[in-house]
C-alpha cells in the first residue's frame, strides 16, 4: 500500500474505561440501566401476573403480599404492568434515537463535507427544527399521524434529528482539512468512501454520547405524550399511560402514579448519568484535566 | 451595533418562512382526508364538500400554501373549529396565565440556580459539588408532569398545605396559593438547568488568568466570586437560559395539565381532544414564532452585554 498519513488514533477502549472509573457515578448509571434492560427483556418471566388480566374483585388494592405494587381500577397488577411498560418505553426510546441518529448524522456529515448551498439549506432547516419546543413538535406530529407505536417513533425521531446533524457536521468540517482525508482524496477515493470509512468512524464516539443523552429525552417525550393521551393505545401498558389512568384516582390510590413515576425518573436519570460520564470521557477539553 | 441588529432581524425572516412551511407540511401529513377525519366517516358528501371549501382544501396545493403564508404573515391564525372564535383571541385569553407561570418559574430558577451552581463550581469535585450535580441531574430528568404529580401528591393530597386545583381567583392571597405549586414545580426544573449551566460557566471563568491575578492581588473570596467571576460567567448563562425557553414552554404545558390550571397547555389539550386542527396549527405557529423571537432577543442581549462580540461580521 502507498504510505499515507496515519488517521488520528481511535479513542482507546482503556481510556474510556479509565474515565468511567474516575467518575464512579457512571457505574451507578450503567448498573441501573442493566437492571432496567433486564426487566424489559425478561418481563414475561418476572411478572407475577398477566399485565392485561382484569379482576373486578381486586380493584384499586394497595400494595400487598399478592400484589406488591397494588392494583389499578381494573384490578390489574401494577408491578406486572410496570415490567411490561419498560419494553414499550425502551423500544420507543431506542428506535426513535436510532432513526434520528442515522438520518441526522448522515445529513450532518454530508452537509459538512459538501458544504456550500447544500450545507446552508440543511443548517437552515436544522435551525428551524430547533426552534420548535421538542414536546410540542412531537405532540403535533403524533396528533397528525395518529397514535401508534410506529408513529410515536417517527414523531420523536423527527424532534431529535436536528441535534445529530449539528454534532456530526462540526467535526466533519474540521476533519475535511486534515492530512489523512486530503491523502485519501489524492488517492482518488470516492467521497462516499472518505465519508463512510475515514470520517464517520472518527466522529462516531461523539455521536454515541449524544445518542445516550437524547435517548433520555426520547423516553421523557414518550412518557409525556402517553400522559397527554397520544401514546400507544390502551390496554397496552406504558408508563406514561399508567400515570394518565392513575391520575384519575390520585386522591385514593397513590400507588398508581408513584411507581410508574419512579420508573420513568430512574430510567431517564440512569441514561443522563451515563451520557454525562461519557461526554466527560470524550470531550478533549475536559479530558486531561484534574 | 445597529447594523448587527438589522442583520440579525433580516436573518430571522427565512427562519420564520421555513417554520411556516414546516407547519404547513405537517398539517397536510394527516393520513387520508382531513375533512373526513374531522367530521367522521358518517358525514354526508355535502357536509364534507362544504368543510373542504371552508378550509380551502379544494384549492390546488400551491394556492393553499400561498393563502396560508399570507394569512399567517398578516397575523390571521385562523378560526378555532370548535369554539368558532379566532385562534388569536383564544390565545390572548389564556396567555397571561402561562406567562405568569413561566415568569415565576424563571425567577425561582435564577434565585436558586445561580447560587447553587456557583457553590458547586467553588467546591469542584468535592462532596458539595457531587451532591449538587446529582440533584440537578435528577431535576432535569423529571418530565414536567411526573414531578408535578409527585408534588401534588405530597403537598396537596398528603400534607394538605396547598389546593389540588389551581384555577384563577380574584383574591390575591388565594391567587398566590394557587400559583405556588405549579410555579414551584416548573421553577425546580428550571433551577436544575440553571445550576448546571452556572457551574460549567463558573468553572471556565475561574480558570482564567484574570482571576488568578485578582487572587494574587489579594481580592477577598467574596468580592472575587461576586464581582470578578460571576459577572463574567453570566454572559453564557443568559444565552443558555434563552435556549432552554423551548423546554420551559413544553414543561409549562405539562404542568398546567397536571394542576388543571388555565393556560396554553389546557388549550392545546382541548384542541387535541376535539381534533381542532386549525387551532393546533395556529398554536404551533405562535409557539414557534415566540421561540424564534426569544432566540433573537437572546442574541441581541448577548451582543449588548458582551463587549467581545463583534458586530462587524
TrEMBL record, chain B:
Membrane topology: Multi-pass membrane protein
Domain of life: Bacteria
Domain ABC transmembrane type-1 span(s) in chain numbering: 95-298
Subcellular location(s) of the protein: Cell membrane
Keywords tagged on the record: Cell membrane, Membrane, Transmembrane, Transmembrane helix, Transport
Record SUPFAM superfamilies: MetI-like
TM spans (from-to): 9-30, 101-122, 134-159, 179-195, 233-259, 279-305
Family from the record: Belongs to the binding-protein-dependent transport system permease family.
Chief location of this protein within or outside the cell: membrane
InterPro entries linked to this entry: BPD_transp_1_N, MetI-like, MetI-like_sf
GO biological processes: transmembrane transport
Originating organism: Salipiger mucosus DSM 16094
Protein's UniProt keywords contain Zinc: no
The protein's name in its UniProt record: Dipeptide transport system permease protein DppB
Taxonomic lineage of the native organism: Bacteria, Pseudomonadati, Pseudomonadota, Alphaproteobacteria, Rhodobacterales
Keyword Transport: yes
Pfam family, any one: BPD_transp_1_N
Gene3D superfamilies according to UniProt: MetI-like
GO cellular component assignments: plasma membrane
